[in-house]
Amino acid sequence: MSTPSTPPTPPRLRLRITAAAEGYVRAGHPWVYESSVREQNRDAEAGELAVIYDRRDRFLAIGLFDPQSPLRVRVLHAGSPATLNDAWWAAHLDKSLDLRTPLFGEDTDGYRLINGESDGWPGLVLDRYGSVLVVKLYTAAWFPHLERVLGLLAARFPDFAVVLRLSRNIQERARAAGLADGQVVQGNLPQASVVFSETGILFEADVVRGQKTGFFLDQRENRRRVESLARGRRVLNAFSFSGGFSLYAARGGATDVFSVDLSAHALASAKSNFAMNAGNPRIAAATHETIQADVFEWLAETDLTFDLIILDPPSLARRETEREGAIRAYGKLAADAIRLLSPGGILVSASCSAHVSADEFWDAVRRAADESGRGWREQRTTRHAPDHHASFTEAEYLKAIYLEVN
Predict the structure, then answer these.
(1) Domains and CATH numbers, the chain
(2) Where is each RlmI-like PUA domain found (predicted)?
(3) Which portions of the chain are predicted below pLDDT 70?
(4) CA–CA gap between residue 393 and residue 147 (Å, rounded)
């Protein structure tokens, strides 16, 4: 009777790429596109580690391979050769965590711990909300490595629950791997909404079904700036979602705050967040009103006036073909908002559309101010918060501009 033989271990997955792609990888770009792969020694499954060699057969990089994605390899390490063993993964995680340690005090327990490619974790985001961690994956190449990631997190956050979130384009493949969006993969989560603190303000985050990982953590620094501008002002928070800017404006001393959003669920969340913070006398002192409406239509039609207006719409250009239309829409929003500003009023206009560059967005808002016929001055422009830093062009999406209108 013969003994079953062990299948042979496949040879290491080796790739060679175009000269142009070599240059990008050497410069620190984390993606290798399908069209850049000119040589591959064998077929491979999603999540295998692909070693990229240059034209002289020298090590160039190692990354996660995905045969079903146009981003064929997402680079984990480049430069000198490295063995991606347990020690490497542990040190790789600790590097990201250590960068966040000096950023936040005890009054903040909601922030980003890993910002994908910009932290060397391509296609993976890790956010903290109190004692809950949310891992969001944007590529199926992480599925074979999820157990390792969860083990690393358990060692560093032993009492935390961990929720898995998945981008829409990989959810079908996730089901085949026994994974689902919103799945609690570690610890216990009594309910979908988690309360966390941001600079002492309490918020709810729906970590199971909410947008992104449950909250828009990336706007924290702009919220803090709005707080510093709000004293004695009548404030409009357009596209208010769950009232982040509204609460900061109230704590900053705003007299009246209006939250406008099309979503009744978002406005209910804003009311809930205000109720949770009722013990803060400044927040309690501000009058807060919610208005359910299409912001584009409402801004064009209302006769109300304000001293401070925040425009923070969802992405208006989800693909390159929508870029020109988005630029026009940003200008129209700014023009309508400027019309509603009282003398000395401030417009804070933000964009999260990666397909619209910062300069294109800022110029659209500036043109609207010029064409308003009112005098204005630019206070500042802003980009990414330090826990959401962007290390390459495609990762740059967030921008805002502050204008004072006479």
Answers:
(1) 13-78 (2.30.130.10), 86-191 (3.30.750.80), 216-405 (3.40.50.150)
(2) 16-76
(3) 1-8
(4) 31
